[in-house]
Automatic annotation (TrEMBL):
GO MF term list: DNA binding; sigma factor activity
Keywords: Sigma factor, Transcription, Transcription regulation
Record keyword Transcription present: yes
Domain RNA polymerase sigma factor 70 region 4 type: 107-159
Similarity comment: Belongs to the sigma-70 factor family. ECF subfamily.
Record InterPro entries: RNA_pol_sigma-70-like, RNA_pol_sigma-70_dom, RNA_pol_sigma70_r2, RNA_pol_sigma70_r4_t2, RNA_pol_sigma_r2, RNA_pol_sigma_r3/r4-like, WH-like_DNA-bd_sf
UniProt keyword annotation of Hydrolase present: no
This protein's name: RNA polymerase subunit sigma-70
RNA polymerase sigma-70 region domain mapped to chain residues: 11-77
Source organism per UniProt: Caulobacter mirabilis
């Protein structure tokens, strides 16, 4: 049985150019297409315990690449939202490293919020973004004011832990 790395190398030799062309049509940028081909095959190499030789290699590669395209689009959207929210004088002083660090932190916050219960997440967002009182949050969510405070406090504690843990 061939090693996983050898199987990925064979897949690359047989279908790498096809995948680059396929991604080039979707991204309309040859440089992004090459980067995504690289990321696709790196993803395959990371799946050491998975069987690498699929029955339909092009379909399999397209699925992996499509998921990476979706992740890339989400990341770019998040980066643009971050830059749009920054005042112009801050945007002018941003380095690519600072933007990357901010986007990484935003992605971590989004993952954290996705792990919260619906009620905790809603209470936190209503308080933080909607600037609602705890009484209004409780009324809107059908919970007591005290429970609304606890939910918001729990969400803040989770965010604090995320921001200050190593």
């Amino acid at each position: 049985m061939a090693s996983a790395a050898a199987e990925v190398a064979t897949l690359y030799a047989d279908h790498g150019e096809w995948l680059r062309s396929w991604l080039g049509r979707r991204t309309r940028c040859p440089h992004r297409a090459v980067d995504l081909v690289h990321d696709t095959f790196c993803r395959l190499l990371e799946q050491q315990d998975a069987a690498v030789t699929p029955r339909d290699p092009r379909s399999y590669l397209a699925t992996v690449a499509r998921r990476l395209l979706i992740d890339d689009a989400r990341r770019r959207k998040l980066e643009l939202a971050y830059l749009a929210a920054c005042p112009a004088e801050i945007v002018d002083s941003l380095t690519p490293e600072r933007v990357l660090a901010a986007v990484d932190m935003l992605e971590e916050v989004l993952r954290l919020m996705a792990g919260m219960t619906d009620t905790v997440r809603a209470a936190f967002l209503l308080r933080r973004l909607g600037e609602m009182t705890y009484a209004d949050i409780g009324e809107r969510l059908g919970i007591s004011e005290r429970t609304a405070k606890r939910h918001v406090a729990r969400a803040y504690a989770d965010c604090y832990t995320l921001a200050y843990s190593d």
